[in-house]
Amino acid sequence: MSTQTNTRIRPLDPETATSQAREIFDGVKAKIGMVPNLYRVMGHSPAALSAYLAINEKLEAASLGAAVREKVALAVSQRNRCGYCLSAHAMIATKMAGVPEAEVAPAREGRGNDEHETALLSLAAQIVENRGWIADEVIDEARKAGVTDGEFVEVVALVAALTFSNYTNHLARTPLDFPPAPDLPVEG
Length: 188
What we know:
Layout: H1 19-32, H2 37-42, H3 46-59, H4 66-79, H5 83-95, H6 104-108, H7 115-129, H8 136-144, H9 149-172
Helix pairs in contact: 3-9, 4-5, 4-7, 4-9, 7-8, 7-9
């Protein structure tokens, strides 16, 4: 997704949204100070937005820390070519999760700071690229790098949540409301 403006599903105005969507938007705004356009698009289905927020909230308590989760988000969004999520997660990674800016581009490529982190990012990238069909050798290499069974499952959950947001942005052509990440993928 690029920064284009030919939106297919308009983001809802939090002030005029249905009471159910507005209630969710109010909670989001109280937590993060804004209602991102992605959430405003998902708000057309309060059930879908609630589910998306719930899985992400639960994953905040995962064994993978915020910095690694954001790097996984970058690796997945790069594979899914989602400019909106690349921009959002680059900003979140550097401003909120403590990821140095110099680590954003390598994360998009599936490379981390060490063998363990690289194994996690590579796993996420390969899950997307291979639709979850991962070769035994990849699993063995990840295990050698220290990836636990719990981390395998958490990476799958992150990929699922990110694919939901990536594909929603593709379908909706969500207008970018974050600083654009460099070298955004071309739509299509």
